[in-house]
Amino acid sequence: xxxxxVHLHVHSEYSLLDGAARIEDLVRRAADxxxxxxxxxxxxxxxxxxxxYKACRxxxxxxxxxxxxxxxxxxxxxxxxxxxxxxYHLILLARNQxxxxxxxxxxxxxxxxxxxxKPRIDGKRxxxxxxGLICLSSxxxxxxxxxxxxxxxxxxxxxxxxYRDIFGEYFxxxxxxxxxxxxxxxxxxxxxxxxxxxxxxxxxAGSAEVYDGSAVFEEPGxxxxxxxxxxxxxxxxxxSG
Length: 241
Known about the structure:
Helices cover 34% and strands 17% of the residues.
């Protein structure tokens, strides 16, 4: 039976300290599960795009090119501390050639002009290069989710409306459920926010591993260890769909 679910929030080995999925294994597993398309959204980089594209073509899967950008609500010229100037996650997906070119431009700007702790983009650049892109509000580290988690409903609403002003019908509020209590709290608030604003919901699942328990690495010296996810995160698998 064909699986109509498509992963739109996926991290590979190119998401340093996060992704544990080799691209070839990731695409092969998606094909085995009957998926017709698959996205790649590594943190702040597009290093895996070419091997991902080639692997998808090899396995008969439609590649969706994306990136989980680091977004600052301030300006790229502002370089305060993380508390005064938070950095949020934001998923961008190319829906056509123009979107792919704009995604590359944003990624380059983030590294060459916006690097401060992370390769950042801001609202000005996002609006300038928004054509051809789909935007998802991202995980618990996204701006909307973080406000909702802190019960700052109006701030979350204003952030969501700001993104909708930029992307129009191509902005979606993201739901994730990997068993975290924080996600359950945010999901309920996100559903209410969607009802209030009319912004549609999307459930891309989120994936950072190919199989449950596959994040096993070898220490220098030969001892194997299972890597624990960072605080506030959870393991996410290709099989979660």
